Amino acid sequence: MNYINVILPIPVQKLFSYKITEAEATFIKKGMRVAVEFGKSKIYTALVYNVHQTAPVGYEAKDIHQILDEIPVVNEFQLKHWDWIASYYMCSLGDVFRAALPSAFLLESETEILVNSGFSEEEILNDEEFLIFEALQHQPRLSIHQVVQILGKKSVFGIIKTLLEKEVISIKEQIYEQYKPKLVKYIQLSQVWSGAEKLPELLALVDRAKKQREVVLTFFQLQTTKKPIKVDQLLDASNASSAVLKSLVDKEIFEFYYIQKDRINFEGKTSDIKELSEDQEIAYKSIKTAFETKQTVLLKGVTSSGKTEIYVKLIKQILDEGKQVLYLLPEIALTTQLIERLQIYFGEYLAVFHSKYSMNERVEVWNNVLENNSKARLVLGARSSLFLPFSNLGLIIVDEEHEPSFKQFDPAPRYHARDAAIVLANVHNTQVLLGSATPSIESYYNAQQGKYGIVTLNRRFGNVQLPEIELIDIKEKHRKKRMTGHFSDRLMVMINEALDEKEQVILFQNRRGFAPVVECETCGISPQCPQCDVSLTFHSYRKELRCHYCGYKQAMPHNCNACGSNKLNTKGFGTEQIEIELQELFPNHKIGRMDLDTTRGKYGYQKIIGEFQAQEIDILVGTQMLSKGLDFANVSLVGILNADNMLNFPDFRAHERSYQLMVQVAGRAGRDKKRGKVAIQTFNPYHQILQQVSTNSFDEMYKEQLNERWQYHYPPYYRIIKLTLRHKDFNRVEGGANWLGKSLTSVFKDNVLGPTTPGISKIRNYYIRHIIIKIPQNKSLKGTKDLVIRIVNAFQAISDYRSIKLTIDVDNY
Questions:
Q1: Residue 609 exposed, middle or buried by CB count within 10 Å (0-12, 13-18, 19+)
Q2: Which residues on neighbouring strands pair with residue 488, listed in sequence order?
Q3: Which of 20, 56, 224, 786 has the smallest number of Cβ neighbours within 10 A?
Q4: Distance (Å, whole) CA 23 – CA 64
Q5: What is the pLDDT of residue 569?
Q6: How far is the first Cα of the chain from the last one, in angstroms, to the nearest whole number?
Q7: Computed from CA positions of residues 487, 492, 494, 495, in that sequence, does the dihedral angle turn out positive or negative?
Q8: What are the pLDDT digits (tens) for 36-74?
């Protein structure tokens, strides 16, 4: 007997075995999809992990439902990488499978009901049952969704159950393929009329129908280009309606045909790669030399040093060898500008893969990579593009490697794209280039320890000087009443100077909305989210209060809900408030805003970045989206409106992240010829991080942070595993967290922190508790994880705690 082990797209740790026939065993290969029944009647898309002849122990293997592929959609390299991700990040292969494949590949199973042909006892049915029975007389099958609509109620399973018991209906699971290829409609002459000698006879046939004759003549004109003729093209050129064309098809003069086409194509002429500067050339050669002995190389180049041009030269060399390149970026916003730059050099070799692209577009990229098609030789994407089916990978570039956006927090697998990329390169036996002006402490530490190669680039392209950074003490400015709204007099002077010179300004405030808190001046109470432990953020544009954690919103009240006072005041400020203030202060200039609220659509980023690049926007205000990688030649001033929020964040990486964010934002200024200026507003200009930012002292910041990490047992010296417990019952989550905390402390002693209540202790009505385990360098990571899993399994076996949602996050920073 033959069996297959399959991965199901659900969070179960084990693989499941299914029976297959002899014929199926010769056809099925590892990495193909099969539809299988799991549970009582639910059908899932499963992935074949291996084919074997060992019967499962403890249950009888079911037959598979159907084979869904002719060739594997997932290759051996991917499965090896998935195994590592599941093992390292302590999740199931099913979690990785669901995250890796575009949702169109995970075929949906939908329950349908059919009427039993022999049933005639209508009198035993109640009103609701009869409604469904009557609907089934008019159409052969109904989905659960249609039953809900017919009855006008959500809970319909009870009625379906009684109909099954009375043998009125039967149930079927229908599988739906979600991906639809894009077909472009073309037109051609029928075979009967294809010869040149048939033309007079054809024209005589349509002589009396003037419109039809016009279409036929236009077709022959278009045919001289010897290209396939699209239906739309023919209708436009002949100025005819589709009805006229249909009548010609009915007369069998023309016939339609379809060509499958990719939804996204990067075409156009490609140009030669720019000559590298002397410094860039030295860096390029150093990277090539480092790759001879090291698999991973860190390129530490100051902002605007021209790292992208070095990447381009490396990519060109790999593509010339016929291999694939993966270019990872932390933010979708960055892909917008980079697509234009890479398209000039690599044209149709370029494919883009991220969540703003539609499901069908992502499937096409997946298929092109799987087939090693030239259209997807260079893949540019966010962290999810790691999971694409590369078979001939020659290089991985991780740009802005320090970015927190590379870390996936929810749902599982909670992987870090930079670390997973290094393992993927190991699987493919290829190289990784990490690039950043402000590397993460971990990467820089690995480079200093000799684990990675390191190349530095300390000059900006064209020898433009790094921006001049000025710290503005707003505590003093408030005291002397020299503030206009949230702008100091010095920042106002700098903005006016830049605008007078017809230059552009970027202003950074890492908080969206109008104001984070609305407070009653009489009783001091702020409106809170009913589902989360946070105050609601005021959004002026829609005059509403909104929760940024669960999406709850309500209209802005006119009176305090607690005391009825109408004296409501806002505290703090976000990008929306800055935009409104700027419109009042600079009425003759165009103000733009770039945050999560203004970039929701598929082309939201392109629109704002395009307008700013075309200099239609004079001042752009935004969150951390505009802090990295963007290149605008005409920006001469960058303003950071409040540096203290970032510095005072309760996190061991707060100072490192603040330094990186401020240096990256500052790097947007003066990228062309003229030296840029940066103004940082702060209540504490003598803070050591701000001093280090103003002097661009990365090494000083690195040594200081490293000392603190060693002292308080944090990465890179210790690894961290974070356990999060969630439940709607406060007492249950409290009891569960205490039990788990004591069990872990008895094994790991002082290396356990918690259970603790996070700053935001309730989200979406779930109370939250955290437990952190620190793992020293001399302790086995795998051994520690095995102990954690054993304790967690014992915890979940206790009936009182079984309903607590528990997530494990390895390297949670």
A1: buried
A2: 483
A3: 224
A4: 13
A5: 84
A6: 48
A7: positive
A8: 888 766 778 899 999 999 888 888 889 888 888 889 999
Q: Which of 74, 62, 56 is nearest to 35 (CA)?
A: 62
Q: How many CA atoms lie within 13 A of 91 on its CB side?
A: 26
Report which DSSP code applies to 416: B
The token duo for 516 is 């984070």
- Is 622 in contact with 575 (CB distance < 8 Å)? yes
Q: What is the mean pLDDT of residues 522-526?
A: 87
The answer, yes or no, to whether residue 299 has pLDDT greater than 60, is: yes
Per the DSSP assignment, residues forming a β-bridge with 24 are none
Sign of the Cα torsion 544, 548, 553, 559 reads negative
Query: Which of the 8 DSSP states describes residue 675?
Result: P
**Chain centre distance of CA 635:** 28
The average pLDDT across 619-637 equals: 79
Q: Please report the pLDDT score of residue 173 as a whole number.
A: 58
Q: What is the pLDDT of residues 145-175, one digit of tens each?
A: 788 788 877 667 678 778 887 888 887 655 5
Structure tokens at 421: 């990329």
Cβ(453)–Cβ(422) under 8 Å?
no
Residue 628 has pLDDT above 70, yes or no: no
Is-contact 2 51, C-beta < 8 A?
Answer: yes
Where do we find the tokens 């970045």? 609
Return the HEC string of 120-136. Answer: CCHHHCCHHHHHHHHHH
Model pLDDT, residue 659? 93
Using CA atoms in the order 14, 15, 18, 20, what is the torsion angle rounded to 10 degrees?
Answer: -160
Using CA atoms, how far residue 45 sits from 38, 50, 108, 226, in Å, is: 10, 15, 8, 44
3-class DSSP state of 31: coil
How far, in Å, CA of 167 to CA of 276, rounded?
77
d(CA 151, CA 133): 12
User: What's the pLDDT at 148?
Assistant: 77
Neighbours of 219 (CB within 10 A): 20
Phi, psi (5° rounding) for residue 199? -60, -50
Phi, psi (5° rounding) for residue 405? Answer: -65, -15
The CB density around residue 560, as the number of other CB atoms within 10 Å, is: 21
Structure tokens at 75: 């290759």
Domains of the chain by range and CATH?
2-107 (3.40.1440.60), 109-176 (1.10.10), 191-252 (no CATH), 278-461 (3.40.50.300), 468-513+573-707 (3.40.50.300), 515-572 (no CATH), 718-810 (3.30.70.600)
Per the prediction, the chain carries an average pLDDT of 86
Q: For the whole model, what pTM was predicted? A: 0.80
Q: Give the torsion through C-alpha atoms of 440, 442, 444, 445, to 10 deg.
A: 160
SS3 544: strand
In degrees rounded to 5, what are phi and psi of residue 231?
-60, -45
- How many residues does this entry show for the chain? 813
pLDDT at 346: 85
